[in-house]
Specification:
The protein is of the alpha+beta class. It has one domain. Helices cover 29% and strands 25% of the residues. Strands 2-1-4-3 form a 4-stranded antiparallel sheet, with helices on both faces. A hairpin with a 2-residue loop joins β1 and β2. The longest helix is centred in the C-terminal third of the chain and has 14 residues. The termini are close together.
């Protein structure tokens, strides 16, 4: 049985986070080295993760809250990362690099902390 990532992309506008890409539109590839780098999940090669699992932010968009609730306890290792942190995860996997570059294009802001992903994993 494999592990998959579930993610939403959010953008901060007028001090509120709004959903930019919902879980069905976001990155869905299965790459365990990437999972290890993002959330210390399936970390078979002692990859240093970008951060400890931070959980979903309390101000996350309603789309993430509804999606996560629908999965119940089947989602684990929930966390979030900002674009400034995601740029540190490049060169792990080609499709991920393209995804992060797309987020950079969506940013339209000098503050790279105005774009974030919230993610979790299933088994």
């Amino acid at each position: 049985m494999g592990c998959d990532i579930h993610m939403v992309v959010e953008k901060k506008e007028n001090s509120k986070w709004r959903c930019l890409l919902n879980p069905n539109e976001s990155f869905r590839d299965r790459n365990y080295n990437l999972f290890a780098k993002l959330g210390n999940v399936r970390n078979y090669h002692e990859i240093i993760p970008l951060s400890d699992n931070r959980k979903a932010p309390s101000d996350s968009c309603k789309e993430w809250k509804k999606y996560a609730k629908s999965w119940g306890s089947d989602l684990h290792s929930t966390s979030h990362l900002y674009l400034s942190e995601l740029e540190l995860s490049l060169d792990i996997y080609e499709n991920w690099d393209k995804f992060v570059k797309t987020l950079e294009e969506h940013s339209n802001s000098p503050n790279k902390d105005d774009i974030r992903i919230i993610f979790a994993f299933d088994n």
